[in-house]
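DM between two lab members

TW: hey, do you still have the SGNH hydrolase-like domain-containing protein, acetyltransferase AlgX entry open?
JB: yeah, one sec
JB: this one, 338 aa:
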Amino acid sequence: MTLAKVWLRIFITGYVAVFAMWLVSLTSLPPYGDLTRIGHLAEEDFGWTKPAPTVDPAYLKAAPVNQADILVIGDSFSMTLYWQASLVKAGYRVATTYWGQYGTVMCKDFDQWLERAGFKGKLIIFQSVERLLDERTVDGQNCDKVIKPFESKLEPFVKPAQLPGPDALPNWTARFDTGPEAYYNSWRAKKSPVDLLFNKNAWVRSLPGGCQYFSHRECNKLPVFVDDEGNGPLTTGTLDRIKRFAQQHPSIPQLWMVIPNKTTVYLKPDFSKDFVQGFREAKLGPDLYAFAQEKGHRMQDFYFSNDTHLSMHGQLALGEYMLGVVREALPVSQTKAP
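TW: and the structure you got?
JB:
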């Protein structure tokens, strides 16, 4: 065989292999969850399948901050405005802003910052996921001034997650190796007797009895974010920093919404136990650890299987729970008249 024929055969073999990989990628679902995306896992195995509830768009409208009764300072768990919709439906005017826009807002000039924004309401809700709260309180320890002016939107910051529709395939955005890599990683995760870490970002952990809690196909395995544990637990130090901030800024009542990590709810319920116990005793906000334990083990897809966040089912359940909490802290009769 001549050298030219050898190279031709190698070229044809390589071309066929790449073409086959490309066809696999074209027929694989595009990621619709953060964990499947960053962990390079197949949505066919780990993507949620239970249709999401919807909310009347009329209740997904935020109030301008200078007209709001309640200001939510939240993270990505608040950006769809889904849980806040229960408050809006009940007659509260709610403005929402995003921690990530400012670095931290737990600064000495917090009250003046709100005054400059025009907030005249009667309740502030600080919402943070567990894995980021300690960092946020630490950043605020030596902060004199919020570095950016207040900013909020009247519409949701992000759209609610949806299942891929019939137009999701072919997956033209995929690289030629995306599909084969995702299927291979998922095959490894399914077959492995131990937990595996994928792409340094996403664990796939065993969850015996998981099909009671999740709708994805491989429901006895659960993808979770590496930072859930990597960022460490909340501590009594975290709690002390929150208490100190609340004491320094008493002019407007505060509620702290600490949403537990998905890992905490399903795998390590005692992860931040010292903080949780102290938080309950201090009555700084609702006990979302107990709430999430109850709902997460009674409601299917309370969290997204393929993501770090509460599902739309979970967000609506959170909204109904928070409505009861807010009614105790701020009866509608005390809000501004329409």
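TW: got it. The CA atoms of residues 91 and 338 lie 9 Å apart. The longest strand covers residues 123-129.
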